[in-house]
Automatic annotation (TrEMBL):
<dbReference type="InterPro" id="IPR034085">
    <property type="entry name" value="TOG"/>
</dbReference>
<dbReference type="InterPro" id="IPR016024">
    <property type="entry name" value="ARM-type_fold"/>
</dbReference>
<dbReference type="GO" id="GO:0006606">
    <property type="term" value="P:protein import into nucleus"/>
</dbReference>
<dbReference type="Pfam" id="PF18816">
    <property type="entry name" value="Importin_rep_5"/>
</dbReference>
<keyword id="KW-0813">Transport</keyword>
<dbReference type="Pfam" id="PF25780">
    <property type="entry name" value="TPR_IPO5"/>
</dbReference>
<dbReference type="InterPro" id="IPR040122">
    <property type="entry name" value="Importin_beta"/>
</dbReference>
<keyword id="KW-0963">Cytoplasm</keyword>
<dbReference type="InterPro" id="IPR001494">
    <property type="entry name" value="Importin-beta_N"/>
</dbReference>
<dbReference type="GO" id="GO:0005634">
    <property type="term" value="C:nucleus"/>
</dbReference>
<dbReference type="InterPro" id="IPR057672">
    <property type="entry name" value="TPR_IPO4/5"/>
</dbReference>
<dbReference type="InterPro" id="IPR040928">
    <property type="entry name" value="Importin_rep_5"/>
</dbReference>
<keyword id="KW-0653">Protein transport</keyword>
<keyword id="KW-0539">Nucleus</keyword>
<dbReference type="Pfam" id="PF18808">
    <property type="entry name" value="Importin_rep_4"/>
</dbReference>
<dbReference type="Pfam" id="PF13513">
    <property type="entry name" value="HEAT_EZ"/>
</dbReference>
<dbReference type="InterPro" id="IPR058584">
    <property type="entry name" value="IMB1_TNPO1-like_TPR"/>
</dbReference>
Length: 1099
């Protein structure tokens, strides 16, 4: 009786949970959650198996039971006695033997599968063998309904066989194979495709499994094609996309059928757009994940695909209001033209320009001459879309492309003019700065002409946006030629649109013109001074008065504009307005906190940082007022959630959420609103620390506590990068707080930074982390790393170096792959470059340790030295040899004579490296010879003598001063200098000096030039007869050398060697006639350079 009463009460709870009244539902949820878990399980099972009960209530019970198993199984199940566990398993299995509707059965399968998932432990032991038996029984039964249920459950938990899977592999394959060709039921075939796909996805990297299941692929594609013809449920096409994403090579044998099926869907006029999009997505995904395979096996289909994509791009609304609207209404992401444009961009990036550009180029001319504006629009948007992927091929064709595009700035249809602006703006970015250098004479006047289009604000604003892209990357000397013309136009528009805002409330073009002015100022720098006084009053007025909600964006952009103008014209000019502008900006926050989504916030935060750069230390007075909002924005914690597929479908309609699938029904979601602003705020904190130094010391502790945890903020690369960049700056700021404070900060930073280096998923961000660590070590100096930390760091470097060699082997294997082609080679070379960069960062960290710990670091270096010995082997790639030599250069430079313990490893590679074919290797080897001369001591005198003829040969090579070779050559000249000056016991200095003098001047490598000119000064100051020549006849040549060095800025003015050079010139100046002879033999540039140095007061 009691049980029946409980069940009745529970029935009432279920009814309330289904209520449309929020309050009733909330109360029911509370009552439901207050029940003990085991009671809920029992009551829910009773409802599900109670056939007379309402369908809606039984379905609700299955949903609740699955959720309960998903979230609470591990808490309640182990606590119930074994016989209750057995009973539960039996009852859950019996759900599927109860009479059910299709919908209820589907949900019941999910309940059983969820329980099965929970009964496999981490070692793969399945503690529910009855389920596996049941699965095979269902699959082999004569009932299509039971077969379908078995396949559904297997698709939901494809790993259900755990560590028994290998024994059952034949049975699994047989079950799936029979189901795929089951002639009695389409539903069984349909579910079989889902099951195979789930199984392959679970084993996406396991080639053996792919090979074993390969023969199932043909029937899979047949069933998918069948589902396309039925046009009812698109989930099999989605499965195909998942396979294309995760296991594209598995699809190889059926690539033809896949291409044909997808092209058929795309060219079928009666097919719904969503199906066309899925077919297109399948082909685009394959082109991204297995481009070489598509190029090799399916190249013949690309000429059929591109016209279909371009055709989708012509599907635009004929809305006469579009170009006169004052609001930018973004196209729907699901619309044909947006989907197709994105697909074209991805196809170009995936398959490469050689494959895609010829197809685009052959289709575009007829579209551009089509009387229907939609075709002209699509053609221009296509040019914008393929620039990134077809970069190399398009670059050579830009003149012809631009001849076409520029005409359409005058097209009769506003949206075509808009598309022409779009293409120009995109190419300005994609092909910068060569685009700006080649086309400024046509592009700037063209865009200024479209900026006059007052009748069509959307077009007018887009011309302004294209001018932003153009001026951002335009070399300053080019933009300055047009500055008066550009600014006359922009000031006129600013004035007219300001009046329009007051009269009509329209603001779109005004917002854009403010941004365009900011961009022009940013590039023009001090040349913008001429427009400052006219512009600033109007901009300040906008900041002061644009206070309503709809004007927030305008105010934000004006704030950005004012701060960029300030940065351009410099402190002196901006100073008069700085206080007033800061007060205006601070007033925004004084009136109450801005909400996180207020567009002004990010503009304000960036503007404060720019003004800080302009004012320097004087900004400190504002710091207490601005730090709060910046810290708050940087501290933003995004909303995250774990959701199953159903929950995800409910929220993923908007752009606000992004999801990562964790497999088996689980998805990790993050709400992306505000994350960009968070990244920007983190960057600004770095700016403050850099600009204010010790003035930021009081904030070092709270900022470091904010930044260190953000090294693990995996939702945004920029946040982690800013966190890493901030650390050395913060340590530098905190030095004034004393060593105890500083050490406390470092104790907090160091372990977390080391962890971040090891676990960082993005190579570029890891480089930032490593650079940050190197800077921190250099900032803090000796003693900052104790033995434990050093060993941990060396362990991580050891892992990174092992991975480096593993990746090199992987690339060798990829070069043997069946789909290997020249475009794959280009990608492998890019990977080589990334690896090369990683080695550079490892070298940075080691450099910091050698600089700090000198010879004491040797015992730690020994833990990884074997990698560097391998790297300098003659059989290694040049980049390995280069970085290996750089590290041994540090071993010598900072370890001094003690480096002799490693000489058996580095001597031959350094000497032979001087004659290497690769310039970077020669430079590292030449530097090594020089540092051996200075730091190695007398033990290396013979090595220095042996290196001399090789160094001379490099310097005397006819090509030694070419752009590629000049740095290695100057390092070689510097190395000879160091040998002559510091390690000359085994050579005849007098014999070499005339050659040495003939190799001067040097100017390119400003690190090495002071050694060379310092030695020259020493020889002149000690009256060396070989250098001065008989009767001092070489003096004009020596003065010319010094003048050339100053003309080419070879020596920083503040370097003591520059002062010695100037004093030598002054001495000769005092001799009257001789000096006039010297001057008369100089070029005009050398004369000016010498005059500047002699008349400069700090000399």
């Amino acid at each position: 009786v009691n049980m029946a009463a409980d069940q009745e009460r529970f029935h009432q709870i279920l009814i309330s949970l289904l209520s449309s009244d929020n309050e009733i539902r909330t109360q029911a949820e509370k009552t439901y959650n207050d029940l003990p878990t085991e009671t809920r399980v029992l009551l829910l099972l009773n409802v599900i198996q109670n056939v007379p009960q309402r369908e809606e209530e039984r379905q609700m019970a299955t949903v609740l039971l699955r959720r309960l198993f998903s979230s609470e199984f591990s808490e309640f199940y182990p606590k119930i006695p074994p016989e209750s566990q057995q009973e539960l398993k039996r009852r859950v299995l019996s759900i599927l033997q109860t009479e059910q509707s299709d919908n209820l059965r589907r949900k019941s399968c999910e309940v059983v599968a969820e329980m099965a998932r929970n009964l496999i432990d981490e070692e793969g032991n399945n503690s529910w063998p009855e389920f596996l038996e049941f699965l095979f029984q269902c699959a082999n039964s004569n009932s299509p309904i039971l077969k379908e249920s078995a396949l559904r459950m297997f698709a939901s938990v494809p790993g259900v066989f755990g560590n028994q899977q290998i024994q059952h592999l034949d049975l699994i394959k047989q079950m799936l194979q029979q189901s795929l060709v089951d002639s009695t039921s389409y539903n069984v075939r349909f579910q079989a495709v889902k099951a195979v796909c789930a199984f392959i996805m679970l084993h996406e990297k396991e080639d053996q499994i792919h090979k074993f299941f390969k023969e199932l692929l043909a029937p899979i594609i047949q069933v998918i094609a069948e589902s396309v013809d039925k046009n009812e449920d698109d989930s099999l096409l989605k499965c195909l996309i998942d396979l294309a994403e995760s296991a594209p090579k598995f699809l190889r044998s059926q690539l033809d059928s896949i291409m044909q099926m997808c092209l058929k869907v795309m060219s079928n006029e009666d097919m719904e757009n969503s199906w066309k999009h899925l077919a297109l997505e399948t082909l685009v995904t394959l082109s991204e994940t297995a481009p070489a395979m598509v190029r090799k096996e399916a190249n013949q289909y690309i000429p059929l695909l591109i016209p279909l994509v371009l055709n989708l791009m012509t599907d635009l609304d004929d809305n006469p209001e579009w170009s006169v609207s004052d609001e930018i209404i973004e196209d729907d992401n699901e619309s044909n033209n947006v989907v197709a444009e994105s697909a074209l961009d991805r196809l170009a990036c995936g398959l490469g320009g050689k494959t895609i550009l010829p197809q685009v180029i052959s289709n575009i001319p007829p579209m551009l001459s089509n009387p229907n504006w939609k075709y002209r629009h699509a053609a221009l948007m296509a040019i914008s879309a393929v620039g990134e992927g077809c970069f190399k091929q398009m670059e050579t064709m830009l003149p012809q492309i631009m001849d076409g595009v520029l005409n359409y700035l005058q097209d009769q249809h506003p949206r075509v003019r808009y598309a022409a602006c779009n293409a120009i703006g995109q190419m300005s970015t994609d092909f910068a700065p060569s685009f700006e250098k080649k086309f400024h004479t046509k592009v700037i006047p063209g865009l200024l002409m479209v900026l006059e289009d007052d009748q069509n604000p959307r077009v007018q604003a887009h011309a302004g946006a294209a001018l932003v892209n153009f001026s951002e990357d335009c070399p300053k000397p080019i933009l300055i030629q047009y500055l008066d013309e550009i600014m006359a136009k922009l000031e006129a528009i600013l004035s007219a649109k300001f009046n329009e805002l007051v009269e009509k409330g329209t603001k779109l073009v005004l917002e854009q013109v403010v941004t365009t002015i900011a961009s022009v100022a940013d590039t023009s720098e001090e040349q913008f001074m001429a427009y400052y006084d006219r512009l600033m009053p109007c901009l300040k007025y906008i900041i002061q008065n644009a206070n309503t909600a709809e004007l927030k964006m305008l105010r934000g952009k004006t704030i950005e504009c004012v701060s960029l103008i300030g940065l351009a014209v410099g402190r002196e000019k901006f100073m008069r307005d700085a206080t007033e502008i800061m007060d205006l900006l601070l007033k925004t926050h004084a009136e109450g906190e801005l909400p996180d989504d207020d567009p002004q916030t990010s503009y304000l935060i960036s503007a404060w940082a720019r003004i800080c750069k302009i004012l320097g230390k004087q900004f400190q007075q504002y710091l207490p007022l601005v730090i709060g909002p910046v810290m708050r924005m940087a501290s933003l914690k995004p909303e995250v959630a774990l959701m199953d597929n159903e929950d995800m479908d409910e929220v993923s309609g908007g752009d606000e959420w992004q999801f990562v699938s964790l497999g088996e029904q689980q998805n990790f979601g993050i709400r992306t609103a505000g994350i960009e602003d968070k990244a920007s705020a983190c960057d600004m904190l770095v700016c403050y620390a850099l600009a204010l130094k010790e003035g930021f010391a009081d904030y070092a502790e709270p900022v470091v506590k904010l930044m260190v945890p953000m090294l693990k903020f995996y939702f945004h690369d920029g946040v982690r990068t800013a966190a890493a960049q901030s650390l050395p700056c913060l340590l530098d700021c905190a030095k004034v707080k004393g060593t105890t404070f500083l050490q406390g900060m470092w104790d907090y930073i160091c372990p977390e930074l080391l962890k971040a280096i090891e676990t960082e998923p993005e190579t570029d961000v890891r480089h930032e982390h490593m650079f940050s660590l190197a800077k921190c070590i250099e900032t803090l100096g000796k003693g900052c790393m104790n033995e434990e930390l050093l060993k941990e760091l060396l362990r991580i470097l050891d892992v990174l170096l092992k991975q480096h060699f593993e990746r090199a082997t992987e690339r060798l294997n990829k070069r043997k792959d069946e789909d290997y082609d020249e475009i794959v080679e280009e990608q492998l070379e890019d990977e080589d470059n990334d690896d090369n960069y990683t080695l550079g960062k490892i070298a940075d960290v080691l450099h910091a340790l050698f600089v700090t710990y000198k010879e004491e670091f040797y015992s730690y270096f020994d833990l990884i030295v074997v990698h560097f010995i391998k790297m300098i082997g003659s059989d290694q790639p040049w980049s390995d040899r280069q970085w290996g030599l750089c590290v041994f250069d540090d071993v010598i430079e900072f370890g001094g004579p003690a480096c002799v313990k490693y000489q058996q490893y580095f001597l031959r590679p350094i000497i032979e490296g001087v004659s290497d074919k690769n310039a970077a290797v020669r430079q590292a080897a030449a530097y090594g010879c020089g540092t051996l001369a200075i730091n190695g001591g007398p033990a290396f005198a013979a090595t220095c003598a042996e290196a001399l003829p090789r160094l001379a040969e490099m310097i005397n090579d006819p090509e030694s001063r070419s752009e590629e070779n000049i740095n290695p050559t100057e390092n070689a000249i510097s190395a000879v200098t160091k040998i002559l000056q510091h390690n000359n016991s085994n050579i005849n200095v007098d014999e070499i000096l005339p050659h040495w003098l003939s190799w001067l001047p040097v100017w390119e490598d400003t690190d090495e030039a002071p050694y060379v000119y310092g030695y020259l000064c020493h020889l002149i100051e000690t009256n060396n007869s070989i250098i001065l020549g008989p009767n001092s006849s070489n003096i004009p040549r020596l003065i010319a050398l010094i003048a050339e060095a100053f003309y080419r800025d070879a020596i920083p003015v503040e370097n003591p060697v520059a002062l010695r050079m100037t004093n030598i010139v002054r001495q000769i100046q005092g001799s009257g006639e001789m000096f006039q002879i010297c001057i008369s033999q100089l070029t005009s540039e050398q004369q000016v350079a010498l005059h500047d140095v002699l008349s400069s007061p700090n000399k």
